[in-house]
Amino acid sequence: MRQRPALVNYASSIIGNRVLAEDLVQEAWLRFDEASKGRFLEDATGYLYRIVRNLALDSKRRDAQESRVTGAVDYEVIANISPAQTPDPETIVLYKDDYATLMQALAELPERTRIACEMHRFGGAKLREIAEFLDISVPLAHKLVADGIDHCRERLGGWP
């Protein structure tokens, strides 16, 4: 318990997210507790730091991989448009067909794939959150999102 704030700071410095760092420290403690049952560990603090470091690096790698695979289109532009910023008629006409095609492509997807794709792309949900919501594994959530994006790209004729 005495090392907890230092461990959270350490994990946060690696992954850049204090909330996730707190979760990692909790996970590290659970792993440490399980590994040390019935044994005396000479350098328990060092071992705990090593577990935190490994979990943080794994998390950072997973997030980077997730961004590489599913981050081809930046939807933040869409998310940051305020209701007062109504697009001009030319923009509406220009993207109306693409929007209709995208909605049709999403409707063609199996339900779980569509939900996973919409949660990730439009809701900004992480794969962990999608997996929890759909009660599936994180790798399956990753596959569903990637399959949904690939399907939409094909329907839009190679749209990025």
UniProtKB/TrEMBL annotation:
Keyword list (alphabetical) reads: Sigma factor, Transcription, Transcription regulation
Q: Which domain of life is it from?
A: Bacteria
Tell me one Pfam family matched here.
Answer: Sigma70_r2
* GO BP: any one term: DNA-templated transcription initiation
Q: Does the keyword Nucleotidyltransferase apply?
A: no
InterPro entries, sorted: RNA_pol_sigma-70-like (IPR039425), RNA_pol_sigma-70_dom (IPR014284), RNA_pol_sigma70_r2 (IPR007627), RNA_pol_sigma70_r4_t2 (IPR013249), RNA_pol_sigma_r2 (IPR013325), RNA_pol_sigma_r3/r4-like (IPR013324), WH-like_DNA-bd_sf (IPR036388)
Question: Under the GO molecular function aspect, what terms does this record hold?
Answer: DNA binding; sigma factor activity
Q: Describe the location of the RNA polymerase sigma-70 region domain by residue ranges.
A: 4-63
Q: Where is the RNA polymerase sigma factor 70 region 4 type domain?
A: 102-145
Point out the coiled-coil segments of this chain. none
- What protein family is recorded? Belongs to the sigma-70 factor family. ECF subfamily.
Q: What is this protein called?
A: RNA polymerase subunit sigma-24
The organism named in the record is: Thalassospira povalilytica
- Lineage of the organism: Bacteria, Pseudomonadati, Pseudomonadota, Alphaproteobacteria, Rhodospirillales
